[in-house]
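anyone else get weird line breaks when pasting these?? whatever heres mine. first is seq + tokens for prot A
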Amino acid sequence: MWIDDQVLRQCDQPIAIATWVPQSPMVVLGSSNDPAREVEQTYCADARIPVLRRYGGGGTVVLYDGCVVISVGTWVKEHFQNAKYFRALNACVIAVLAKRWPKLSECVTSGISDIAISDHKIAGTSLFRSRNYLLYQASILIDLNVDLVTQCLKHPSKEPDYRRGRSHSEFLIGLRDLASDASPQDVVELMSRNLNGIMRDVLGDELVSPASEQFAGLLARAGTVTSIDHCRCHPTTGESSGRAERCPKQT
């Protein structure tokens, strides 16, 4: 089961949140990314690192045990307004992190949807929309393994202005670089305790009740596979096998 499937299958809930730490490396493409342009495919194949694809847009990321992945499914008032919802949900993630590490209140949304601090990216996010339903995903760097990122990913074919052509090592930063006591499990526990409540406070009237007439379409997406090879991803362990253009899913 891919993490997006788990959240989509809870679309009858006003807010569904899944937070996890991958136990082995994987590359995850945005919905329209070309693996030939974004991924060091020979390295990933030789290292048996699966290349997967999420429903949401955004850039290609490497997930591994030094990251935390957050998937949120919720119902919102507007069918569009993606920039507004990116900013609001990023603000929720930042607010949760700042409860434990106040310095992280300096984080901002940069580019289209990155979470950054002092011009360095600490988290990438993506959004999948289906009318009132919103599926948001953030991958937060805790222990930055820049060697792995560089081995798996080419310089992105599209980059936000604030990156200014910088290499992965010059552009990325891990939470532990800012807070030496941080760990992936700390972040999982922090998000699990606080994110739902902060979302309700920040989004307020933007949140609406689940639209039952939309459930069938969302559930039909979960588990859909169009793949190079089939893959399976388990959100509680991050285990995966195979390589895929589209994961069993949805993130």
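and prot B, same format (seq, then tokens)
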Amino acid sequence: MATMENDMRLKYVTEIHTNFESADFWLQRKGGDGTLGKPVKEFTKENIGVKVTRHEKVVPEFLFYLMEYVFNTGYWRKYAIGSTNLKNLRVEDVKNLELDDKQ
């Protein structure tokens, strides 16, 4: 069984869910390849909110820029669910994003 010490996933340092007005930032949950998973700083109840809970492990501003990098690499495309024009990103896939560089 994986533990936080040897399996650093986003869910271990953040709280993540939709309709999360007090989040540090949000990831676009619906859209096409050009917008799905894009981090934004404006609240929308449909987007996936991400709030850092372990400030000793990660700084919210750094995590926002890391999520921009993840988005720009096209990482979320493999997790997109739906039709060609309208896709969705699942909260569980965001929670399971690995934060270590051991891959």
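btw re prot B: The first helix runs from residue 60 to 72. The two ends are 18 Å apart (CA to CA).
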